[in-house]
Amino acid sequence: MIFKNYIDGLQSVLERIKREQEQNIELAGKIVAESISQGGIIHTFGTGHSHMIAEEIFFRAGGIAPINPILDERLIFLKGALESTRAERESGLARSLIEREDVRNVDAAIIISNSGRNAAPVEMALEMKERGVRVIAITNLEQSSSSESRHASGKRLYELADVAIDNCVPTGDALIALDGLSTKTGAY
Fold first, then answer.
1. How many domains are there within the chain?
2. Domain check: are 26 and 13 in the same one?
3. Which of 5, 114, 118, 143 has its C-alpha lying 20 to 30 A from 137's C-alpha?
4. pLDDT tens digits along 169-180
């Protein structure tokens, strides 16, 4: 029953997040609450599949209203997966995106990147920090800490964040090993 193994694996990751990331999640919640109570906006940003998390909290029933997802068609697969991959590694892209936004120092940012090493999310964190915005990162600490940055600063997303939430997913972002396949399948 492969689907049961998959669900068990997902539940295991959620339990690990619950156990290991409670303090970071509470701190992130305080940052968001403080920003909103001061009239701030929560800017969200993610590239590749991570953009879906950035969009998920925007304009949702039961969600908080002051959310601004920073989106660009090159980063969310509208121009294809290869263009998205190329764009998230492009220096200068995040700066051009943030310049069209109204970002204030009472705001907060949630930046999502599984690898935490590509130029766009790292640059977005740097741009937010330059504007006095507190940054919450959601990333894969195991993978990110063992990978070289693709940004000129040499920094990875978690190194720039005020708080980094580990998504607790093993490197490779896949769960199920199938006979005959050399790589795992079933994304987290």
1. 2
2. no
3. 5
4. 988 888 888 889
Same domain, 59 and 49: yes
Regarding whether 14 and 57 lie in a shared domain, the answer is: no
**In contact, 108 and 161? CB cutoff 8 Å:** no
Closest CA to 135 of 149, 151, 123: 123
Strand order in the sheet with 134-139: 67-69, 42-46, 108-113, 134-139, 163-166
Q: Which two tokens stand for residue 98?
A: 């943030």
Instruction: Return the exposure string of 106-127: e unless at least 16 CB atoms fall within 10 Å of the residue's CB, then b.
Output: bbbbbbbbbbbbbbbbbbbbbb
pTM of the model: 0.93
How remote is the C-alpha of 47 from its chain's centroid?
8
Taking every pair of Cα atoms in the chain, the longest distance, rounded to a whole number of angstroms, is 55
Q: Encode pLDDT of 45-94 as tens digits.
A: 999 889 898 989 888 888 778 999 999 988 888 888 898 889 899 899 99
Range of the domain at 182: 1-20+171-188
User: CA 36 to CA 34: how far, in whole Å?
Assistant: 6
- Check whether residue 26 and residue 16 sit in a common domain: no
Do 101 and 160 fall within a single domain? Answer: yes
Tokens representing 77 are: 């697969």
Distance CA 41, CA 98 (A): 14
